[in-house]
Amino acid sequence: MDLQPGDILNKYDVHMSIFVRWEDAARTRPRVMEQAGPNGSPTTERVWSAATASEYTPRRYNNIIDDAGERDVNGDGKADIVAVVGDKLRYYYGTGDGGFHFHSEGGVGWDVLTQVDLGDVNADGKADIIGVVGDKLRYYYGTGDGNFHFHSEGGVGWGALGKLAVADVNADRKADIIGVVGDKLRYYYGTGDGNFHFHSDSGAGWDALAQMSLGDVNADGKADIIAVVGDKLRYYYGTGDANFHFHSEGGASWGALSKLAVADVNADRKADIIGVVGDKLRYYYGTGDGNFHYHSEGGAGWDTLSKLAAS
Fold first, then answer.
1. Is residue 43 part of a domain?
2. Vertex 214 angle, CA 106 and 251, to 5°
3. Total count of domains within the chain
4. Which domain holds residue 107?
5. Whether pLDDT at 65 is above 50
6. How many CA atoms lie within 13 A of 74 on its CB side?
7. pLDDT in tens, 97-132
8. Is position 33 within any domain?
9. How many alpha carbons fall within 13 Å on the CB side of residue 63?
């Protein structure tokens, strides 16, 4: 069973704990909530070793709906990358440690998309592509193997979005769209069939964001916004109702990223950052509080990507 927060880990007649999240990409060391001592003792969070975890049996209440979270391309729980190179679509699979390996490249005409992002549109657990073509919105459904098939194109006025990001904002397991129009933040809710309906415009000054991406930064199940403003990184936390509140801004040299994507790279349920700097791919791991720490930089030729999305 793929453990979800709230699952029970039970050692019959000895001890029982509540699963919080995995502490490692290999998913062998769980963080749990348990009593610190005898009955009546306060609860505390601890990280178990793989050996300790192996002694426990997972249990789930039979009416719980599994959290879809951010879905990757191939369903292995590690973020993957989809990119446009020339008029082709390229797919790199993630290994959970900041490495992304070339898998395939195909199709034609992908260069007509002025904006691209990944999200689980139809709630089937596989990442799909949402793109803007002219003033239309286009939807391609993913099949879990790096292939994306055209589904539909429609609407008008989508070319007005200065920024586009896709994620499940309202926690209904269907991807939604956040966009910047003028200096406002705009929210469209998804209905699971490739249609997105206008919900609200809000705030001011959102046009100051040079780059923007969505991901669950604080592991509360609600999409948050990460953005580059000048050479700083800015974090807005989402409340699940299309509102995003300023949390923090910091760091330096974030303006050096020519591409920005946010996704859970190391499968710890906290969003991480993937960026392109020069011709290299750079990975920063998130700590769940809006801070992102440099991990690694590698590869070559990443500057040939005209569009980059991760999920």
1. yes
2. 110
3. 2
4. 81-310
5. no
6. 18
7. 999 999 999 999 999 999 999 999 998 889 999 999
8. yes
9. 0
